[in-house]
Amino acid sequence: MPESIIKGYYENLRKGKLIGNKCKCGGYTFPPTAACEHCGNSETEAIELSGEGALLFVSHSMAPPPNPRFNKIAPYAYGHVCLEEGIYVQAIINGIDIEPESLMKYYEKCPVKVRADIIEAEGLPVLAFKIV
Ligand SMILES: [Zn+2]
């Protein structure tokens, strides 16, 4: 993946913008890469996604964060989100208590509407969502 795609992804994320790629095949690729993840076409168009979606499932990890840069924000809720564009992502869900009773409440309510709510960990923006 060319550096400019990664750099652009983080620069936009820092501004609260979710930029993906849309392909002629109709598929989206997010986070953006050098080629469409559906058909491999490298001629894709950068497109700003709505940042709106539905939280399908939320839980928390019993394991330590996968990267030390998340240590300061752990423990956190982690969820599966389907963006309005039909893109499935896994991300941190802000503002959710990770106690079992709280998670059970969301388990019973999902899908619930969420909106991108970018956070920062050790100087890098991180994709996260909040309940709306
Ligand atoms: Zn495609």
Briefly, what is this?
This protein is of the alpha+beta class. 17% of the residues lie in helices and 38% in strands. Strand 5 (77-83) and strand 6 (88-94) form a beta hairpin.
Structural overview:
- With 132 residues, this protein is an alpha+beta fold.
- Helix content is 17%, strand content 38%.
- β5 and β6 form a beta hairpin.
- The protein is globular and about 45 Å long.
- The mean pLDDT is 92.
- Bound molecules: zinc ion.
- Residues 23, 25, 27, 36, 38-39, 41 line the site of zinc ion.
Features:
2 domains; about 130 residues; five-stranded mixed barrel; globular; alpha+beta; about 15% helix; three-stranded antiparallel β-sheet; 2 helices; ChsH2_Znr; binds zinc ion
Question: Tally of extended strands?
Answer: 10
Order of strands across the biggest sheet? 4-5-6-10-7
How many whole angstroms does the radius of gyration measure? 15 Å
CATH topology-level name of the largest domain? OB fold (Dihydrolipoamide Acetyltransferase, E2P)
What is the arithmetic mean of pLDDT? 92
